[in-house]
TrEMBL record:
Lineage top rank: taxon: Eukaryota
Keywords of this entry: Iron, Metal-binding, Oxidoreductase
Family classification: Belongs to the cytochrome P450 family.
PANTHER family according to UniProt: P450, PUTATIVE (EUROFUNG)-RELATED-RELATED, P450, PUTATIVE-RELATED
Listed GO MF terms: heme binding; iron ion binding; monooxygenase activity; oxidoreductase activity, acting on paired donors, with incorporation or reduction of molecular oxygen
Origin species: Phialocephala subalpina
Keyword Membrane included in the entry's annotation: no
Full protein name: Cytochrome P450 phenylacetate 2-hydroxylase
Length: 466
């Protein structure tokens, strides 16, 4: 015998139209239909996977998420997982049924052992409207597969020598701006914008723009103008064009690579500086290190620990038809000190992905290697050039694992703080960075994250190397 839940709506409507009903019966049936819609989900309940109780009709568990409890969503997931004593459980987000993976062992089994079964995914609403062709949030169609293949090729290590001048130019400008006490919050993000669209010229519109989208549109327009003029800009966009991608595909792929730039690079370096100027981080700065691309184990370990500990995006893109979340602080994997920031945690870890902020498997973020390179180079330059110190009677950095963000929900945004960058060797810094004149202390008070055009002068690619 079929139940009301099993019957589809057209059959119910047809049955009701053929049966004369009293007002009371109509109200009762209307309530039953309303309750049925309130319990309805896009997928039926998955057998043998525990379900989090306390959901509400129509909205599911949304009332507990999005920062409504002053907690990040990943923290709420970990609380639910502990309550259920399960590393895998299911929740409801509106009418969508989602599977939450809250343990390292379960994640490894899904993402590594069963990688091929998670390559595809359902269409994500909103991505097509704002990004267009999205290589991370779209189903694995032939077009997306072609764009991902081109992106991986464009971001591979053989292409890095072409991007090196762009990245080093902007990272040196960042150090120079700190030393000259200029506004520095816009410098670092250019390290991610420049390789993608190429160096842009200085325009008043770009300087005044505050919205990321407007900045990217300007870079994209400059790229198209150069292509129209017969130039071949040395950037990721040109590499994608060489693979016969259309302009829409190039723009969508670049947007996909850039959408996480403030969270991955800028916010991670920002929180690294917050920890470095804390009482725990000051002794770390005294370590004697030498710069060599991706070969400073202490710095590599530092940014990996920052990506793990200060999760600016404490979730991961869906890589299946159901939501899959990961909590990157599983004590069973990282030990009882999983909730403690330990910069040397990954010193002897030679695995390609010691922390999983970029995902893993066939849908891993294509820009994970170059993002690590940018962070490593920027942090090494900062530590070589400056001592990072707290400033008394100002906003102190927050290095709490959760409270470092002044936003709650899926994406974390580091709180603003004040710190001083004191030149280690002022004479050496002037001679190697092309600084004409500057003071000894620069104070960083704003959040890194907006784009600004590069300086007109091109600095040596080895200007801050020993």
């Amino acid at each position: 015998m079929s139940t009301l839940r099993d019957m589809d709506l057209p059959r119910i409507q047809k049955a009701l139209s053929e049966i004369p009903l009293s007002p009371a019966s109509s109200i009762l049936l209307g309530l039953l239909l309303l309750v049925r819609e309130g319990y309805k989900t896009d997928f039926p309940k998955v057998p043998k996977i525990r379900f989090v109780l306390g959901f509400r009709l129509f909205i599911g568990h949304l009332s507990s998420l999005g920062g409504r409890q002053k907690l990040n969503d990943a923290t709420v997931f970990s609380i639910w997982g502990a309550r259920l004593s399960s590393g895998v459980f299911q929740i409801r987000l509106g009418s969508q049924r989602n599977i939450v993976v809250d343990s390292w062992a379960a994640m490894k089994d899904l993402w590594v052992e069963r990688n091929t079964s998670l390559l595809d995914r359902a269409h994500q609403k909103g991505y097509l409207d704002y990004i267009g062709v999205d290589i991370s949030g779209s189903p694995t169609t032939e077009q997306i597969r072609k764009c991902r293949t081109s992106a991986l090729k464009a971001l591979g290590k053989p292409m890095w020598p072409y991007y090196c001048p762009l990245i080093e130019h902007n990272s040196v400008n960042f150090i120079k701006a700190l030393y000259q006490k200029e506004k520095t919050e816009r410098k670092l993000w250019r390290c991610t914008l420049a390789p993608t669209k190429g160096n842009g010229g200085a325009t008043k519109i770009l300087v005044a723009a505050k919205e990321r989208q407007r900045c990217i549109d300007i870079f994209y327009g400059q790229y198209l103008q150069k292509v129209e003029d017969g130039e071949t800009p040395t950037c990721i966009g040109s590499s994608l064009g060489a693979d016969k991608l259309t302009l829409d595909e190039i723009h969508g792929t670049c947007m996909s690579l850039l959408q996480a730039a403030p969270g991955t690079v800028s916010s991670s370096v920002y929180q690294c500086c917050a920890w470095l100027c804390s009482p725990e981080g000051r002794p770390f700065q005294a370590e004697k290190i030498a710069f060599q691309q991706e070969k400073v184990p202490l710095v590599v370990s530092l940014y990996n620990e920052t990506r793990r500990f200060f999760s600016t995006a404490a979730f991961n893109h869906r890589r299946a038809s159901k939501e899959i979340h990961i909590y990157d602080t599983d004590p069973e994997h990282y030990g009882q000190d999983a909730f403690t920031f330990i910069p040397r945690r990954f010193m002897n870890d030679n695995t390609p992905t010691p922390q999983l902020s970029y995902g893993i498997g066939g849908r891993i973020c294509p820009a994970w290697m170059i993002s690590n390179w940018i962070m490593g180079e920027t942090l090494t330059r900062l530590i070589l050039a400056f001592e990072v110190k707290q400033v008394e009677r100002t906003r102190l950095p927050n290095t709490d694992m959760i409270d470092f963000s002044d936003k709650y929900g899926l994406v974390a945004m580091p709180r603003s703080y004040d710190c001083a960058f004191v030149a280690r060797d002022e004479k050496w810094l002037k001679s190697t960075s092309g600084v004409r004149s500057a003071g000894a202390v620069a104070t960083h008070t704003r959040r890194i994250g907006e784009a600004e055009p590069a300086e007109a002068r091109n600095y040596s690619s080895r200007s801050l190397k020993y």
